Amino acid sequence: MPVIDRQSAIFFVGQLRSARLAALADAEAFDEIIHVVERLGSYLGGKLSDLGVYRKVLTSPDLAGRSGLAEPPSHLRALLTPFARLYDLVKEARNDALHQGASARHLTKHAIELTIVLEDALSTYFEPMVADFMVRNPDRAEFWQPIGFIRQQMLANSYSYLPVLGHDGVWRIISDTSVARFLGLDQFGGTRKSRLATTLENAFLKDPDLLELANDLPPDADLCKALELLKSKSVMLVKDPDGRDILGILTAFDLL
Fold first, then answer.
1. Among 27, 32, 108, 220, which lies 20 to 30 A Cα-Cα from 18?
2. What are the E-state strand segments in 166-209?
3. Which of 246, 232, 71 is nearest to 162 (CA)?
């Protein structure tokens, strides 16, 4: 039977994270999470089956049991649901015929909680390294894009930060905070409309504080270094070996 190693753990963590983010964007998008959980069960069980058959291997001490979230103390059960119970809730709801509206949203909520425990458990199979936790190939803001488009990208994808490569070859960060500050309080006046149509390049010329420098790390840096740098900056860029391009972006959210 296949076992979890560093490579397979990293692969499934990435799959679970992508499915979880998709479900957060669509309150009824539970299927993608369940498909990843089934792939993980199939990998460990060595055969194609269903959630009922995969229960034993996925709830075992060698997988979900490795997470401190899998079996919370009894006095915390009102806040944290044990993994085995979460698994049964998802399995039973999946078997129901009707998956829409409130029923689907409830299933999605439990499925998201399920992935959080599995991600936590799988992360115990590899050494804590920046490359394993960063968001790979992040979307970027460009100097030619209007602030309105950048704002749209942030809202549509729940981004708090976007990396920007300046004409000087220096990587910087634009944050949701700086965009909100640049747009100001006037929600309906001509000033806001004008600023939404302003390119990032022109906005940066008007307000150099719009973009900030970010700490950068190599992909093989350990998380102790990352956590130390987070004391001074909220976001870090993970650069490739020659330092000219970025491989990923890392925030405190990625390390929770």
1. 220
2. 171-175
3. 246
Please name the residue that has the structure tokens 């030619």.
144
Q: Which two tokens stand for residue 116?
A: 């959080």
* DSSP tag of 160: S
> What amino acid occupies position 149?
F
Residues 106 and 220 in one domain: no
Output the pTM of the full model. 0.75
Alpha-carbon distance 150 to 236, whole Å? Answer: 19
What are the average pLDDT values for consecutive 10-residue runs of the chain, which has 256 residues?
A: 83 91 80 92 87 92 93 89 93 70 79 94 87 86 96 89 91 94 78 92 94 88 86 86 83 83
Domain membership of residue 212 as a residue range: 132-255
Cα four-point dihedral sign 124, 106, 29, 97: positive
**Two structure tokens written together for 125:** 């199979």
User: Can you tell me the distance from the alpha carbon of 239 to that of 134, in angstroms, rounded to the nearest whole number?
Assistant: 11
* Domain-ending residue, one of 77, 92, 126: 126
Q: DSSP of 118-130, one letter per residue?
A: HHHHHGGGS--BH
* C-alpha count within 13 angstroms, C-beta hemisphere, residue 135: 21
Reference 183, options 200, 171, 170, 168; nearest CA is 200
CB 1 within 8 A of CB 93: no
